[in-house]
Design brief:
- The longest helix of chain A has 38 residues, at 315-352.
- In chain A, 38% of the residues lie in helices and 16% in strands.
- Chain A has 13 helices and 17 strands.
- In chain A, a hairpin with an 8-residue loop joins strand 13 (357-359) and strand 14 (368-373).
- Chain A is α/β, with parallel strands linked by helices.
- The N and C termini of chain A lie far apart (83 Å).
- Chain B is of the alpha/beta class.
- In chain B, the strands form 3 sheets. In chain B, strands 1-7-6-5-4-2-3 form a 7-stranded mixed sheet, with helices on both faces.
- In chain B, helix 4 (93-99) packs antiparallel against helix 12 and helix 6 runs parallel beside helix 12.
- Chain B is globular.
- The two termini of chain B are 33 Å apart.
- Classes of the chains: A alpha/beta, B alpha/beta.
- Chains A and B meet through helix 1, helix 2, helix 3, helix 4 and helix 5 of A and helix 3, helix 4, helix 5, helix 6 and helix 7 of B.
Chain lengths: 444, 502
Amino acid sequence: MLREIGVESIEELFADIPAHLRLAGPLELDPGQSELEVFQELRALAVRNTSTEDEVCFLGAGMYDHYVPALIDSITSRSEFLTPYTPYQPEVSQGGLQAMFEYQTAICELTGLPVSNASVYEGPSAVAAAGYVAKLANPGRSRFIVSRALHPHSREALATLAHGWGMEVVDAPLCDGLTDLPALDEQVSAVIVQQPNFLGAVEDLEALAGAAHAAGALCVAACDPLPLSVLRAPGECGVDLAVGEGQTLGNRLDFGGPSFGFFAATEALLRRVPGRIAGETVDVEGKRGYVLTLQTREQHIRREKATSNICTAQALNALAGVIYLSWLGRHGIVELTELMLQRTAYARERLAAIDGVALLHDQPVVREFAVALDAPVQAVIDRCVAQGVNPGYALGRDYPEYENGLLVAITERRSRADIDRLADLLDGAVAAERSRNTHHVGAR
Amino acid sequence: MAFTAAADDQLTIYERSKPGRRAFVAPALDVPEHPLDDLIPARLRRAEGERARLPEVSEPEIVRHYNRLSKRNFDLDTGFYPLGSCTMKHNPKLHERVAALDGHARLHPFQDPRHAQGALELMWRLQDSLAVIAGLPHVSLQPSAGSHGELAGVLLTRAFHEDRGETRTQVLTPDTAHGTNPATVTMAGYEVVKVGTDAQGNVDLDDLRAKATPDVACLMLTNPSTLGLFEHGIEEIARIVHDVGATLYYDGANLNAIMGICRPGDMGFDIVHFNLHKSFTQPHGGGGPGAGPIAVADRIEPFLPRPQVVRRDNGNGAQPFFDLDYDRPRSIGRLRGFQGNYGVFVRSYAYIRSLGAAGLRDVSEVAVLNANYLLARLRAEGVLEHLPVAYDRICMHEFVLSGAPMKHDLKIRTLDLAKRLLDHGVHPPTVYFPLLVDEALLIEPTETETKETLDGFAQILVEILREAADDPEIARTAPHTTPVRRLDEAAAARRPVVRQRF
C-alpha cells in the first residue's frame, strides 16, 4: 500500500504535522487487552454498582425503573438500526425514516400537538431547546418564568444557555405543590412548567397556558409521556411546546443516558423546531417514501441562521420509544398508567399513615408523590437501603424548603408487596431516627 | 422471492392496526381500586374518546413490521460506508454486551455515589484517558454529542472572559467548518465571522490576522480540517488567537487521524470536544445516540459543567472514593440532566481498554494509510481526471474530490454519482461538503476497511464513470435497485406531512 502511495513509511504520511508536535513515545495509557480481559474488567466495574435488579428501587425524579419488553432489544440490536448514520441518503434509509415518522405520530398523539421532531438529546436539554425556540419566536423579551416544580436539572440547563442569550430565568413559587404564577408582563418570553411536576402533582395546564398567552408569552410544558395517556393532552390545553424525557418509553436507565428527548410543537412553530424531522413524500415512480424534511432549519444547510446546532440526536432511543408505544398499544398504555395510579394511591396512603411521615401536598398524582419526614431524610434512606429498599429521592439537595422531603416513584415493577415492605421499613427507620434524636437531645 | 405485495411492505404500524389486537398484558391489580374520579378529577383527564391513537397490533406483527423496515436500511455491518467526517468504523460487538450488564444498564442516575462506585470509577478513568489523548488535563463527560460539546466550549469561553471582566462579541470559524460550528456560535449568543482558506487548503493566515481583534472570543477549528488536511501553521494560528486573548477550540470530528500521533493540547488548543460516536465506536444508531465530552486547559477548568466526577483519596491506604462534585461555584452550570450518556461511556471505555496506547496509534496510522492508499488507487485508475482532488497533498484520514470536471465532461453531477453508488451496494461519501469545493465528495474510508474493499470501491467508481461516458442517463436516474427511487424532497418541504393522518 505504501508503494502504491509512493512513500517509504507511514511516518511520511504525517509529514504535515510539525516534527516537534509529533509524540516521541506512546500515550500514557495502559496496554491493550484481549476481548475476554476487557469483558472481565467491565463486569467487575458493573458489579460494584447497585442496580435496580439488586434492590427494590423507589427512585424516580426524572428517570424511572420501568420494565423494558424483550422485543425492544431484539429489534434495536439489529445492525440495520444500530449501525447506520443519520439518513442522509433516503433511498437506502427508508426503514429508519419511516420509524421516525411513526415515532413523530405517536408523540403528536400523546401531546395533542400537530408537529414532533425525530428526537433531541434528553429531557432537560429539550427544555433548554424549547427556551431557544421561544427566544426566536418572541424576540425582544428578556425573561423566562419557570415553575419551581420544573425538574431542577431542566431549570439549570435552561439557565446555562439563557445566560448566553442575555436572558433571565425567574422561578415561579409553589403553593400546595402546584405552580403559582406571578403577574406576567410583556418581558416574559415563555412560561415553563412540568406535567406532572417534579413533586408528582398534576398541574392545571389550561390555566397556566391561558395566563402565559394573556401576557403574549409561549407556554412550554415538560411532560412525562406515560401519564399523558390519562391526562388531558398539553396541546388541547393550549401548550405551545410539549417536550420531555423519553427514557420511560422503552429505554433503560443507563445511569442517566443515553435516552431521548421529545419535542412537539404547534403548527405555528413548525419552522422553528430544532433537529431532524421525517416527512412523507413520493419517489419518481409515485411510490410513498420518507425524507428528512424542512432541512433549511438545520445547521448543515442554514449554518449560523439555523434554529439549533443539533446534529446527532437519539434516533435509536426514539426507535425504542415507538416500539414500546406500539407494544403497549392504544389501550395498554392507559391500563399501565392506571395500574401505576392505583398503586401510587395505595403507597401514598400507606406512607401517610406512618407516624412521622406527612404528605408534602395532597394534589392528584400519577406515579410519584412527595412526603415530608419528621427525621433526617438521609439517615432514613440509609437505614432502608441497608435492608435492600431504596425509598426514593431526597428533595433537600434541590429544595432547602423541603429539607427532609422524600420523592417516591411507583412504576409497574413495584408490587403491593414491595410497597408494604417500603412502608414497614420507613416506619421503622423514621421511628429509630426520631428516638435517636430524642435520645441525643435528652443526653445534652 | 417476495411473499408480500409491495404495497403491504409499505404500510405504517398505524395502518396495520386492528381494533382489539394487542401485545401488552398489564400486571394484575394487587391493591384496592379507587374510582378514577377520586384520584384525578375528570377536568384534568383525557376523555375516553380522546385517547392517543397508538396502534393496536400483536407482538408478531410488531416484530415483523420493524424487521421489514430494517431491511430498507443500508448499514455499516453490511457494507462500505465512506461517509466523510462521520468516521463510520466498525463497532465492536463486545461493547453492546458490556453496556447491557445490569450493573451498567439498570443503574439509576440518582443512585447514591456510595453504591455507584463502579460507574463513577469508569467515568473517572475515561476522563483520564481522554485527557491523555487530548493533551489537556481536565475533562467533562457531560455533553450529549459533538454539537453539544461545541456549545459547552463556547459557553466556557464566555465564562472565562466574563471572569476577567471582558466582553467579546465574535467567534471566528473557517469557511470549511462543519455547519454545527456557526450554528453553535449563534446559539451561544455570539456573531459568526468567517475566515478564508488559502490556495493550499490551510486557514488563510492573513485573513485570520485581519479578523483577530480584541472583539474575538474564540476560533473554532477542525484539525485535520474538513478537507482532510493538517493545518501545518497550527502553532502560528494559536499564537494569533492567543495574542488577542481569545480561546482556540478544537472540533474533534477528525480526531481519528491523530490519536497517539499528536495532541490538540500541544498544538495550543484550549478546549477540545470528542465525538465518542466517531473515533470511539459508539454505534451511530441511525442518528444517535452519541456523546461529546470536552477536555480543557487549566485556565478553563473552573468553569466546567456541574457535576464533575472526582476521585477523593482518603490517604492511610484506604480505597479512593469516586464522587460527583457539585460544589463548583464558577461553573457554567448543567447542559443536560444527570451525568451524561453513560451507556456510551461504557462502550468507549471498553474500546480504549481494548486498544491501549499502541492500538490507538495504529488506528490513526491505518486510517491515514487507507485514505492515502484509496486516493492513490483512484489516481492510478484515472478517476481523478474526472474527479480531481481538491487540494493535492498527502491527506490525513479523509480527502475531498471535486465533481466539477465530471459534471462538465460526463454530464453527471456528484449527486448522480452518489445515487449510482447505491446501486453498487456502497454508501456514498459525504456530498456537497465542504462548501468551498464545487460538487464536493468527502471520502473517509476509516481504518477498519481492508485493502480489498478499497480496491473494490475504486473499481466501482471506474465503472460508474465509464458507464456515464456511454450513457449518463443511467446515473442521472439512479438509484435503480433500492427500495424506493429518488424522492421528491422539494414537495416534502413545500407541504410538510410529518405525521400519520387518521
